[in-house]
Structures are given as structure tokens and as C-alpha cells.
Amino acid sequence: DSGVTQTPKHLITATGQRVTLRCSPRSGDLSVYWYQQSLDQGLQFLIQYYNGEERAKGNILERFSAQQFPDLHSELNLSSLELGDSALYFCASSVREGRAQFFGPGTRLTVL
Amino acid sequence: KNQVEQSPQSLIILEGKNCTLQCNYTVSPFSNLRWYKQDTGRGPVSLTIMTFSENTKSNGRYTATLDADTKQSSLHITASQLSDSASYICVVSGGGGGNKLTFGTGTQLKVEL
């Protein structure tokens, strides 16, 4: 158990819908990272927050957005969902930038 | 362009045998290199983090090496166990812009009886 929690564990929805994935970092960690992993693909970095502020952006689509709240939990919002958005979405946290990232168990999103 | 290449793409070994996974990178400037183990459907778990000045680091049966001159790293697994079956991902930090991470696509290891 990494100490990072993600909800829900599984999510099945239809194309065109909008979903919100939630992540609670390890206690004391200020940085939160979001990743997408499609079937048989490597991890794709989406976005990073540090203490509530966006710090880095990766290959995140305009249909996706995220935020980190004052209590440091983070949410990833995916809208206008497409079949290709089906993937595992991981959240990771670290005490600060450059330190080891601890990954959550992931949310498996299936878009039908 | 910052890239991390891992080889082999997949590997099957017998239980008890040793194996070595390779990681070559072109990330510059270099900050650190990490190896992660990812079980199917689970989040990656950190095995080692190596900085520029570290050549070797061990974590139980896992030993990572780093040659910053040739920009190569290896992960050696000794006395493999069935539970070592997983994807092993090499991640390099650096490349400008602070904490930018470049991920390799991983080596899929399967340990069989």
C-alpha cells in the first residue's frame, strides 16, 4: 500500500460523457501527478500540481482538466469522452519535486 | 529529443535464474534515473533512484547500475522468483524545465517454473 488512494477503482461510462477521478496523496506529500496508461502502452504523463498550483503539463488533451485543492487532494476531469480514452489513470504523489513518486492503485476507465 | 529506450521489450526466464534489463537514455541535462516495477493492473512501485554520482544501488535482489557517461543503466535481478513477473519501467528525470520525467515503455518480464 503506497498511501495514495484513488477513487473510483472502476468506471464504465458512455461516449460523450464527463467523469471525475479523485486522488488523495500520501500524508505530507505536496506534489500530485496524473498519468494515463492505455492497454499495453507505457505511462503517459498528463499533469502535475504542487501545493495547489499547476507545475507541469504533459500530453493532456484540452478535454481533460485537473486541479489540486487546499487539502491537497486532486481531481482529474475528463469530458466529451471518446472510446480511445479508455485506460488506466494513475495518480502519484511525492513530498516535493525530484523525489520518489508513490503511485496509487489506479482508476480503470472504460468508455463504451 | 528526450528519449528513454528499454531492452529487451519482453523476457521469459526460469525461476531461480538471473537477468539484466537495459535502459538507454538521451535526456539532458540529467537529474536522476529511477526503476519501477509494475504488476499488471497495478500502480508502479519504485525500486531504486540513482543520481549522477551513483554507479550502483541495490534493493534486495535488485541491483541497478548507472553509467552517466554512456547514458546507460541496467537493472539486474538475481535468483528470480515468480513474483518478479511484471513490467519494469525506467524513468529519467531532467531534460530541462525542472522535474520533467521521461518514461521508457518498459520490459515485460515473465518468470516461469
- Provide the succession of SSEs of chain A: EEEEEEEEEEE
The biggest chain-chain interface is: A-B, 23 and 22 residues
Number of helices of chain A: 0
C-alpha Rg of chain B, in Å? 14 Å
Q: DSSP helix count of chain B? A: 0
Shape call of chain A: globular
Unreliable residue runs of chain B: none
What is the N-to-C order of secondary-structure elements of chain B (H for helix, E for strand)?
Answer: EEEEEEEEEEE
Indicate the mean pLDDT of chain B.
92
Strand composition percent of chain B: over 45%
- SS-derived structural category of chain A: mainly beta
The quaternary state of the protein chains shown equals heterodimer
Distance between the termini of chain A: 31 Å
Helix-and-strand structural type of chain B: mainly beta
Total beta strand runs of chain A: 11
Mean pLDDT of chain A: 93
- Spans of at least 5 consecutive residues with low confidence of chain A: none
The largest sheet of chain B is: 6 strands, mixed
State the share of residues found in helices of chain B, binned by percent. under 10%
Strand content of chain A: over 45%
